[in-house]
């Protein structure tokens, strides 16, 4: 494409209007000083970091258009209103449709911030994730990226507008046929999936997504960052999701890789993948709220969310994840009733859970302070484990952060790591001392020693509130199993490091300065 320099003021103004107002971005501020962004962004648009912006509705960056967001920009979302089952105000939400692009590149000093409309001082003093023990959440939508990479979903039997391998994204309305003068005019912008594993939707780096997850309808919340069929050409690095009503990050199929992700104080799962997701991940961190109310799984890892006992579909979800740190709720938890009416222990409290024909690998990670079960591998995943498509190795699991000894039968809390096959659960529990013997079909090479998060201050993690000053210690001590017996790194994507978990014991944590918990002083980095 040729670069054309226009020298006249009139031509420059016309060009700006063409690339901004006509693309959905206003050229003048509203009464509150925000530049409104409305649906659709149909042509290339570049925001200005000296302005603040307001997503007035669900806004799509359409096929062929590119939205560029410079470092330090604040983008607010209109607060959604749901009245008597009817949405009277759509929540401000940014959707990158298939074929659309986003270039959002911040830096540690000037991250790009997505937040709710009335957030008073998002740059200098972020909204605390909890207030009076309750999450400040669900105030706007979130960020959704849709691409053309493969999935294993097939909705064609229930919606004639869709073909196998595609679906409509969670959190947005399902496309409905609308024939005008014999031509189908259905809104297909919320559809994702295709046959392009290296598809690119752009770049997200140093991006903060806060206080979102508006509930459009029952069980139809918007995640913090939702990725549907996003391809490996997309770059996702240094992204945090804070105080979301649903999951922090969720992948619906796709092949996108990611590094340096923080999911903290979210109401549901920290990380959730399904529909054949097969990307790579490294340095994923989880900090659960310890208010005995919020937070589900540290990882809800599914293979096919329509499995339900049907024949297994491909592609099988086989992502590879290295260097994850999960700091769970710190509670064994009360029993609660889930959506199906059955009883479960409080949300897993940070548990790693493989279900519905999931595969994948989890290596060199630290999982501490979870609920009753630290790891659960469902019976539908046994074949994948047997075939070498599901691997959990060289990780540290530790429950009671006030203890110094290994998690054995003398500890005050329990950890159950289990594999379920044909209704029979084989568990590696304290009662057998984690002997990695015949009862341990899947967990060879994992250890159950204290990683001493915070070093000499490790015991503070057992008593301090996670949303208080110096309440969360991220870095383990560089000794023992933290720095020995590591799973070798494969391929060219992963950084080869000499420690387990998401944080280098000898360096300042990568969350420092730009993330909400760091700015509020919660993290000891």
- Relative strand content: 25-35%
The name of the CATH topology is Pectate Lyase C-like
What is the end-to-end distance?
45 Å
Instruction: Tell me the name of the CATH class.
Output: Mainly Beta
Corresponding CATH architecture: 3 Solenoid
Residue runs with pLDDT of under 50 for 5 or more positions: 1-20, 332-347, 408-416, 428-442
> How large, in whole angstroms, is the Cα Rg?
23 Å
Count of domains: 1
- Which structural class should the secondary elements be placed in? mainly beta
Q: Give the rounded overall mean pLDDT.
A: 84
Major sheet? 16 strands, parallel
Assembly state (oligomeric): single chain
Commentary on this structure:
With 525 residues, the chain is mainly beta. It has one domain (32-524): 3 Solenoid (Pectate Lyase C-like). A hairpin with a 2-residue loop joins strand 12 (130-131) and strand 13. Residues 1-20, 332-347, 408-416 and 428-442 have low confidence and may be disordered.
Notable traits:
525 residues, Pectate Lyase C-like, 11-stranded mixed β-sheet, 39 strands, 4% helix, globular, disordered N terminus
Task: Briefly say what this structure is.
This protein is mainly β. The chain is 4% helix and 31% strand.
List the helices and strands and how they pair.
Layout (H helix, E strand, L loop, with lengths): L8 H11 L14 E4 L7 E2 L5 E4 L2 E4 L4 E4 L4 E4 L3 E3 L2 E4 L3 E4 L4 E5 L6 E5 L13 E2 L2 E2 L7 E4 L20 E2 L10 E2 L2 E2 L6 E2 L9 E9 L14 E4 L6 E8 L6 E4 L4 E8 L6 E4 L5 E8 L11 E4 L17 E8 L7 E3 L5 E3 L6 E4 L4 E4 L2 E3 L4 E5 L4 H5 L3 E4 L2 E3 L17 E6 L2 E6 L42 E2 L42 H4 L3 E2 L1
Parallel strand pairs: 1-3, 2-5, 3-6, 4-9, 5-10, 6-11, 9-14, 10-19, 11-19, 14-20, 19-21, 20-22, 21-23, 22-24, 23-25, 24-26, 25-27, 26-30, 27-31, 27-32, 30-33, 31-34, 32-35, 33-36, 38-39
Antiparallel strand pairs: 7-8, 12-13, 15-18, 16-17, 28-29, 36-37
């Amino acid at each position: 494409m040729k670069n054309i320099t226009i020298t006249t003021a009139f031509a420059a103004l016309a060009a700006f209007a063409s690339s901004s107002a006509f693309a959905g971005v206003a050229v003048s501020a509203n009464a509150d000083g925000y530049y409104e962004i409305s649906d659709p962004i149909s042509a290339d648009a570049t925001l200005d970091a000296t302005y603040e912006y307001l997503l007035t509705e669900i806004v799509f960056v359409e096929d062929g258009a590119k939205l560029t967001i410079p470092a330090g920009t604040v983008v607010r979302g209109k607060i959604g209103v749901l009245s008597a089952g009817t949405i009277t105000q759509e929540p401000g939400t940014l959707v990158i449709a298939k074929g659309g692009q986003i270039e959002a590149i911040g830096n540690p000093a000037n991250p790009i911030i997505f937040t709710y409309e009335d957030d008073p001082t998002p740059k200098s003093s972020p909204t605390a994730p909890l207030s009076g023990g309750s999450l400040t959440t669900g105030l706007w939508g979130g960020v959704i990226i849709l691409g053309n990479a493969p999935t294993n979903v097939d909705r064609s039997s229930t919606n004639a507008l869709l073909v196998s391998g595609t679906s409509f994204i969670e959190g947005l309305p399902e496309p409905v046929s609308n024939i005008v003068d014999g031509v189908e005019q259905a809104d297909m912008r919320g559809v994702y999936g295709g046959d392009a594993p290296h598809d690119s939707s752009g770049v997200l780096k140093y991006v903060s997504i806060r206080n979102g997850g508006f509930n459009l309808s029952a069980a139809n919340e918007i995640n913090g960052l939702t990725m549907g069929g996003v391809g490996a050409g997309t770059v996702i690095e240094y992204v945090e999701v804070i105080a979301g009503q649903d999951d922090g990050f969720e992948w619906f199929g796709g092949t996108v890789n990611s590094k340096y992700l923080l999911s903290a104080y979210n109401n549901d799962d920290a990380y959730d993948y399904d529909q054949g997701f097969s990307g790579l991940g490294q340095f994923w961190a989880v900090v659960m709220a310890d208010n005995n109310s919020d937070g589900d799984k540290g990882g809800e890892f599914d293979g096919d969310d329509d499995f339900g006992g049907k024949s297994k579909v491909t592609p099988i979800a086989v992502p590879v994840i290295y260097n994850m740190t999960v700091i769970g709720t710190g509670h064994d938890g009360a029993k609660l009733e889930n959506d199906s009416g059955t009883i479960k222990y409080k949300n897993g409290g940070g548990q790693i859970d493989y279900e519905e024909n999931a595969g994948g690998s989890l290596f060199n990670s630290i999982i501490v302070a979870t609920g009753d079960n630290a790891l659960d591998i469902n019976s539908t995943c046994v074949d994948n484990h047997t075939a070498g498509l599901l691997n959990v190795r060289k990780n540290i699991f530790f429950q009671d952060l006030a203890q110094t000894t290994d998690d054995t039968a003398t500890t005050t809390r329990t950890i159950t790591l289990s594999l379920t096959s044909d209704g029979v659960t084989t568990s590696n529990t304290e009662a057998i001392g984690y002997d990695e013997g015949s009862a341990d079909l899947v967990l060879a090479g994992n250890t159950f020693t204290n990683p001493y998060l915070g070093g000499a201050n490790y015991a503070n993690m057992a008593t301090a509130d996670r949303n208080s000053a110096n309440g969360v210690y991220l870095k383990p001590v560089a000794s023992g199993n933290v720095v020995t017996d590591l799973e070798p790194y494969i391929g060219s994507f992963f950084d080869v490091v000499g420690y387990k978990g998401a944080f280098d014991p000898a360096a300042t944590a990568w969350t420092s300065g730009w993330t909400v918990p760091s700015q509020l002083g919660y993290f000891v980095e």
